[in-house]
Amino acid sequence: MVGVTKIAILDDYIGVALDYGDWSRLPDDAEITVYREAIPPEKLIDELADYEIVVITQQRARFPRAVLEGLPKLKLLVCNGRTSNVVDHDARIERGILLCGVADTDRPAPPRPAGYGSQRGLPTPSEMAWALTFAVAKRVGIEDRVIRAGGWQTGFPTTIGGKTLGLLGAGFLGGAMVPVAKALGMDVVAWSQNLTDERCAELGVTKVTKDELLSSADVLGVFLVFSERSRNTLGADDLAKMKQGAILVNISRGPIVNEEALVEALRSGHLAGAGLDVYDREPLPADHPFRSLDNVVVTPHTGYVTEAGFRSAWQRMAEDVTAYLEGTPIRVVTDPADCPPMVPR
After folding, report:
1. What angle do CA 272, 274, 280 make, to 5 degrees?
2. Residue 178 and which of 41, 151, 170, 271 are 20 to 30 A apart at CA?
3. DSSP codes of every residue in 155-195
């Protein structure tokens, strides 16, 4: 079809993109293709070669220089945040590809309020961390499967109250874990490379060394920001130092914990279980051990997800696409501070 403007919407796993965004103002020659399933990285160039506009919804597909150079028709990327860390911004700018987000770029990014990611109270990712903690400790996944298969009780739940919560990272999300832990009568210890005495005093937690964190935590929560420096912060030697029967919960990013080492620690029974919302590769491959290990509770990187947040984001992403096609792009990312390096896989 001559003159068609092709638009790709990636990774709409839940299938809400067309309903939550108002696409009615798009011109008649605009054609939207929605991808409900992830495009394998090696097929990204072939699949998207004819698209002028690509909407990145889940920050799963990656656009390094090699991919951008293989997409000669690409003129606009739209992301569901203030910016995107899965794009090579240097290459994007060199090629004249616009990036539009969902935040108003004419004002500084606001500080996160206490209820960031939720209607009120805890941030949604911290709620997920507690949900995973209790699901593992109380054997929710295991006993649910047993009952559905016709069985009944098969083991003993673990008590959380009065135990020790270890925070690998005590920033915004890690710090939000503290009030609930205190309400449960838990001791809270914390470590990260940049953790200060002042931050620990503010939270009312005990600053410890990394080894002390690992050896004392009954529940270890991973809350570090992912970067090349934080990759493999927990390797095989680190996991071996954890308490026998401890629980690990990760809502940050998968590669912070060495995946092979974690699988082995879970298979051997050294760790009682793990609650995981993030993985090295997402979506999680069909044959991944995390899908079959009984002592693992898995969720699909939904720690930050709320329906209200998705509705707002989709509406703004639709507005970005419409404004671009009308010749007046909005929310264009131009500030160098909003063009971060690509996060390593």
Report:
1. 140
2. 271
3. S-PPP-TTSEEEEE--SHHHHHTHHHHHHTT-EEEEE-TT-
Q: Which residues pair with 34 in a beta bridge?
A: 9
Whole-model pTM over 0.85: yes
Could you state, in chain order, the average pLDDT of each consecutive group of 10 residues for the chain (345 residues)? 86 95 95 95 96 90 96 97 93 97 68 42 86 98 96 96 98 96 98 97 98 98 92 97 98 96 98 97 94 97 90 96 97 92 76
> Do the beta carbons of residue 52 and residue 3 sit within 8 Å?
no
Cα separation of 125 and 178, whole Å?
14
CA 136 to mean position of chain CA atoms: 20
Q: What is the DSSP string of 96-147?
A: T-EEE-SS-TTSPPPPPPTTTTSSSSS-HHHHHHHHHHHHHHTTHHHHHHHH
* Both structure tokens of 59: 């920050």
CA nearest neighbour of 38 among 61, 68, 5? 61
Catalytic residue numbers, as ranges? 253, 282, 301
Q: Which two tokens stand for residue 19?
A: 């309903």
CB 71 within 8 A of CB 327: no
Sign of CA dihedral 120, 121, 123, 126: negative
- Structure tokens, 63: 């656009």
Q: Are strands 219-222 and 164-168 parallel, antiparallel or unpaired?
A: parallel
- Sheet-wide strand order for 98-100: 30-34, 5-10, 53-56, 76-79, 98-100
Residue identified by tokens 């507005």 is: 319
- Residue-wise pLDDT tens digits, 288-320: 999 999 999 999 999 988 899 899 999 999 999
